[in-house]
Design a protein that fits this description.
Layout lengths: L4 E5 L14 H13 L4 E3 L4 E7 L6 E7 L7 H11 L6 E7 L7 E5 L7 H10 L5 E6 L9 H5 L5 H24 L1 H8 L3
Parallel strand pairs: 1-4, 1-5, 5-7
Antiparallel strand pairs: 2-3, 3-4, 6-7
Protein name: Peptidyl-tRNA hydrolase
Catalytic activity: an N-acyl-L-alpha-aminoacyl-tRNA + H2O = an N-acyl-L-amino acid + a tRNA + H(+)
Keywords: Cytoplasm, Hydrolase, RNA-binding, tRNA-binding
């Protein structure tokens, strides 16, 4: 099987956002790149950093994508990468932060609403469809009356930071399970945790 998968990790550019909840999608892609020994490099045609790899020798090709734009304009880079590689929408996996899921939880789905996530909204607009795969990485709800936008742009708490490597590992495993076994089997495995 050599069909190409496009795996996008959402986040914001710049060191001030690197370790924030909103950038957990890009952290998952860093984990996947590390597992396969690949490095990201700039891709001028798409305003993104890419790493082309395989999960294992002879396995399907993966293009790991970290947009270099701000989260709310992720659609342009994603659309450009999809066109550049001639990829089908059913081979697009978007990894993103999700405030409606408890921290340390990963959920998988295809399509559906964006739940106020501007990065997903922009990708949906650019692709002309909501029907792409999503790896939703739980970052929890903001405490008290804190604004959601402020919350996701903050770094993880110290207790969350100590648990973060396991969360990133689980989310990277979820991406691999979708590619290797399909969405339903991956959901059965990941959601059972």
């Amino acid at each position: 099987m050599t069909e190409r998968w496009i795996v996008v990790g959402l986040g914001n550019p710049g060191p001030q956002y690197e370790r924030t909840r909103h950038n957990v999608g890009q952290m998952v892609l860093d984990e996947l790149a590390q597992r396969t020994g690949e490095r990201f490099s700039a891709h001028r045609q798409s305003r993104a950093q890419l790493a082309e790899t395989r999960l294992r020798p002879g396995g399907p090709r993966l293009v790991l994508v970290k947009p270099l734009t701000y989260m709310n304009v992720s659609g342009g880079p994603v659309s450009s990468v999809m066109k550049f590689f001639g990829a089908d929408l059913d081979r697009l996996i978007v990894v993103h932060d999700e405030v409606d899921i408890d921290f340390d939880t990963v959920k998988l789905k295809r399509g559906g609403g964006e739940g106020g996530h501007n990065g997903l909204r922009d990708i949906t607009k650019a692709m002309g469809s909501k029907d792409y795969l999503r790896v939703r990485v739980g970052v929890g709800r903001p405490p008290g009356r804190m604004d959601t936008a402020d919350f996701v742009l903050r770094p993880f708490s110290s207790s969350e930071a100590s648990a973060l490597p396991l969360l990133l590992d689980n989310a990277a495993d979820a991406v691999e399970k979708i590619i290797d076994h399909g969405l339903v089997a991956a959901q059965n495995s990941v959601h059972a945790r």
